[in-house]
Amino acid sequence: MRTLIFRTAAPYLTALMLLLSIFVLLRGHNEPGGGFIGGLIAVSAFAIHGIAFGVHQVRRTMYFHPMAISGFGLLLAVLAGLVSLPAGAPLLTGLWVSPTVGGITLDLSTVLLFDIGVYLVVVGSITSIALALEGREEP
Question: Which domain holds residue 75?
């Protein structure tokens, strides 16, 4: 399956799918999508890259170990849930702030932080499983 056409198209397809995964992640608050679906799209991008260039290249592309990515995502998700407790709200209650940066108002929320955490957990854990399975030698 590692044809010249596939190896030529794979980097462009991977980049496009990663951008799509970030788009789905960020629009998930108001419309369908979010961290889980965005993470699955990102894992699919890494899978295509792995099929085209091998497991070693995917590990080099990711820079961080997949389980470290997953652990950091879990930390973000937990922190997003705990932020509401000092504010006097129940656990996992969404809180919003609207800072103005350079004349542009940004609407930030703990829901976004939680979605980013879920995204990173999905990317890290499923990529780790896929790389472990792909890296095994056949008997």
Answer: 4-135
What span, in angstroms and rounded, lies between the C-alpha atoms of 2 and 97?
48
**What is the pTM for the complete model shown?**
0.88
pLDDT above 70: residue 1? no
Number of CB atoms found within 10 A of residue 43's CB: 22
- 125 phi and psi angles, rounded to 5 deg: -70, -45
Structural domain total, the chain: 1
Return d(Cα 80, Cα 118) in angstroms, integer.
11
Identify the three-state secondary structure at position 100.
Answer: strand
β-pair partners for 108 = 97
Could you give the CA distance from residue 56 to residue 36 in angstroms, rounded to a whole number?
25
